[in-house]
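Onboarding guide, step 5: your first structure request.
Type a short instruction followed by the sequence, for example:

Predict the 3D structure of this protein.
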Amino acid sequence: MKKGKDPKYLEFVRTLPCIFCYDPNAEPHHIIGIGMGAMGSKAYDIHTMPLCRECHQLTHEAPQKYPQVKWMIQTQERAREAGVL
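The system replies with structure tokens like these:
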């Protein structure tokens, strides 16, 4: 497994509803705009949260407007409760 990659964690995130609007069709969003990834690369998979397509796009358009760190921590807490972490 490459450093920072965790397919099991991403699969878990895909089972969760959007953390913002609760749409059941969510996908993993890697945190952006706060220095969690190297220039031009994605943050580690552990730094993801479930977002639906619309919320994902809005977050990419204005990352500072959304509480990504809070959402990331909430997702990690759910993973711990589920025994994924």
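Each response can be followed by summary notes, for example: The chain has a mean pLDDT of 90.
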